[in-house]
Protein 1
Amino acid sequence: MEQNKVIEEGRQGEALHQPTRGGSKKLFLESYGCQMNFSDSEIVAAILSKEGYSTTQTMEDADLIFVNTCAIRENAENKVRQRLQDYRKAKRNNPNMVIGVLGCMAERLKSKFLEEEKLVDIVVGPDAYRDLPNLIEQAEGGQKAVNVILSKEETYADIAPVRLDKNGVSAFVSIMRGCDNMCSFCVVPFTRGRERSRDPESIVKECREAFEAGYREVTLLGQNVDSYLFSGGGLKKEILTEEQRAAATNFAQLLEKVALIHPDLRVRYSTSHPKDMTDEVLHVMARYDNICKYIHLPVQSGNSKVLTDMNRGYSREWYLSRIDSIRRIMPECGISTDIITGFCGETDEEHLDTIRLMETVKYDYAFMFMYSERPKTLAERRFKDDVPEEIKKSRLTAVVNLQQKHSEERIKAQIGKVHRVLVEGPSKRSNAMLMGRNTQNTVLVFPKGQFKSGDYVNVLATSGTAATLIGEVVN
Ligand code: 5AD
Ligand code: SF4
């Protein structure tokens, strides 16, 4: 079951129901997809709380239903379409209810959405959330409302998010938006627009406020954090002079600024890009105990020809040299990845290169997907989606099984050691147990004792399951 979840949904596609907060009008807000969507939903909640909305967990009571959508694979979109049927039922008993589609799917389908899915009243792309109060007013007046304009500047830097996480311990903080990479399989550059970095001062301020509100971990989010560069004055990266570039804040410097807020504030980030990840970032990570020793470094394929077709900007050898750097600078670092099976033209031998690369790296964790052709992407225009579904599936099974084996080995290697764990809350299975993560992002479960969410505890790992360590506190 767990395994299927990874195959079908991975990091993206999970629905998160946001808990209740503030005001008198009721907003039911669901987020599908990546952490960035979750973080965007917190911006949406902040904009709407000024309009008197509070979030509810009961769809039937809502004045407004918003779904923040993901377009990364076809099944992510199908899931949202199914969900729209549930909203349709809720609206039958409450005809004044307004239904809005937000995010990547809204951006991809634009006004077509209003024609195709007749029950939708509002369609809003990821850069247009400031316009929500207007759009809601239009929809309440009986008009259909759309804003899917992408921006080159919008970072929502000045908006303090309404935190919607469940544990009050880990907060997501967006540091940039959009993506300029144009990986040939990926729809994100079309749905989220051009890359732009957010002012570091506003990022540090948001992280500090989270710490002061009791949060003990921030995850800095961007599609490609290694490409973060803020130069002030709204200057685009491409036109910077050498001098301006040297004076700008890069990701390594930003990471350090956030780490310096407080030693008890853990810092994580996602996602790295192998073509841009610098040793400077790795050295900053090594220098600060509170920067977690964990890197998500998507490889996508272990074959250089497939990587070229994917337009990833690196070869197998380059990727492995980045892994060597991580292991050299931080031998204890946890590493995870994303893998796509059955990309256009992928042969058995090319697939085996991915298997061999996995054997070499031995990832702690991986998110694995079958290739899903997306409209408008470079791959859709240039290549044939010619690997049969059964082969995509059998290759996926092969990588999933191998990863399962590696994850178990990595878990076993951590048994018998003491781990510094940030407590996130009760474990899924029992209220008498707590769960938290070590710096490598491995989940540990242990008896509750006197401890609570937000505490740091030292846990001796005594045994392990496929994905979790079990232990006892040795403070
Ligand atoms: N098909 C399958 N997987 C995809 N991803 C992105 N686009 C596609 C696609 N068209 C995967 C990549 C990426 C992760 C977020 O989703 O592995 O790293
Ligand atoms: Fe998509 Fe590539 Fe950008 Fe990631 S780096 S969002 S895979 S285009």
Protein 2
Amino acid sequence: MLSYEQAREKVIASVRAMRGPLATETVELARACGRVLAQPITADRDYPPFDRSIRDGFALRANDAVLGATLRCIGEIKAGSGFDGVVGPGECVQIMTGAAVPAGADAVVMIEHVSIEGDRIMLSRPATRGQSIVERAKEARAGQQLLAAGTRLGYAEMALAGQVGGHHLSVFKRPRAAILSTGDEVVDVSATPGPLQVRNGNSIALGTLAALTGAEGESLGNAPDEKIELGRYIERGLEADLLIISGGVSMGKYDLVEMVLGELGTQFVYDSVAIRPGRPAVFGVCRGKPVFGLPGNPVSTMVTFELFVVPAIDMLGGAEPRPLPIFRARLAQALREKSELTHFLPARVQTVRGETEVSVLPWQGSGDVVTMAESNAFVIVSPEKLNWDAGEMAMVLPRRGVL
Ligand code: AMP
Ligand code: MG
């Protein structure tokens, strides 16, 4: 059986191999957050466009700036304004953060390091050449590529695009993810379930995960555990860019998803992964589309989406697959696991006395959405180390959207 890392790699390799040219659209900058650039962004001019002071203080000649020197102040420059004169020997100009350093000056001394008397200043520290100045074009040259196509637009990328004049951007269309739940016992969340029925929480989870990941989720509703009808639903799902199915992939008599996918010509890439929850997860390619069969237990559905579906959506959306954002945190309690499988345990990360600590939450297994909603992370326990003491540094996977 594949490890989750191997299964992820297989998803990435399969989607890379099958991915054709991707559709693009133009969006306003203000609406581009989270989107993936389909064009590079280049500098429209030098950055900074002039030698910029990064302090409030005095622009002067570094040669003059020995300890205790007294200089004559010949004017002031605020951000956005220029200065016509030249700073000569023994002179300085008061300058504000963001203003252009005047001709003749080659250093800025911050205001905290001078004493001022009338138009004279006395330096309480020596200055060096270039101090507190960012030279023209030190950040970027005009024409230089700043963001490559394939970059996801977070807040810094958005600010940079705006700074260089990118008010309309070409981005990749969000991939359309068809979402299909299965099971005769599943009813819509708007329905009142019979005593033995369950509401379709998985389609809500999958739609939310799709949105958080940058896909356009399209719920197809719920298919019954019946081959012909299930096949029809799946064929409809194959019209989207990828298909995500929940339920029907375990060993039960009515787990028909794998069989129906096989009859529709799916090339399976894996049909189980060495994880708990999520072991029966299936991935394949059917009629040129990636298809995920995720186990129906709600926590299994969530974990397998995080591990395997996210990189596929990334790539179908024009980006490189994001790495799993795993970090280490100090365990609040001892753990004793017994398994050949890698466990993903709902957990809560918090700051305790200035340190990041993680507690595994008591839970009722992979159907327990109540505990999932209390968690903000998973602790990952692999078979290589099943016994953990309190205080050891455990592997933590943040839960998308909440940590
Ligand atoms: P399955 O993977 O189809 O064997 O389902 C495993 C468990 O998950 C069963 O207890 C199902 O009732 C439950 N389940 C399956 N699909 C859903 C769904 N869409 N929403 C909530 N629970 C589900
Ligand atoms: Mg089922």
